[in-house]
Amino acid sequence: MTQKPVVVVGGGNGARAFAGHLSLKGVPVRLLSSFPEELKAIKQQGAITVSGTVEGQGKVQVCGDDFAAISDATLILVVVPAFAHASIARSLAPYLRNGQIIILNPGRTGGALEFSQVLKDEKCPAKVCVAEAQTLLYACRSEGSTGVRINGIKKEVAVAAFPAVETQTVLNELTKYFPQFKPVPSVLHTDLMNIGAVFHPTTVLLNAGRIEGGEKFEFYRDGMTPAVTAALEQVDKERCAIAKTLDIPILSALEWLESVYGVQAASLREGLINNPAYQGIAAPTTLNVRYLFEDIPTGLIPFISLGKLAGVPTPTCQAVVELACAALSHNFWEKGRTVEKLGLTNMTKKELHDYLLHGEK
Amino acid sequence: MTQKPVVVVGGGNGARAFAGHLSLKGVPVRLLSSFPEELKAIKQQGAITVSGTVEGQGKVQVCGDDFAAISDATLILVVVPAFAHASIARSLAPYLRNGQIIILNPGRTGGALEFSQVLKDEKCPAKVCVAEAQTLLYACRSEGSTGVRINGIKKEVAVAAFPAVETQTVLNELTKYFPQFKPVPSVLHTDLMNIGAVFHPTTVLLNAGRIEGGEKFEFYRDGMTPAVTAALEQVDKERCAIAKTLDIPILSALEWLESVYGVQAASLREGLINNPAYQGIAAPTTLNVRYLFEDIPTGLIPFISLGKLAGVPTPTCQAVVELACAALSHNFWEKGRTVEKLGLTNMTKKELHDYLLHGEK
Question: Interface pTM (ipTM) of the complex?
Answer without folding.
Answer: 0.93
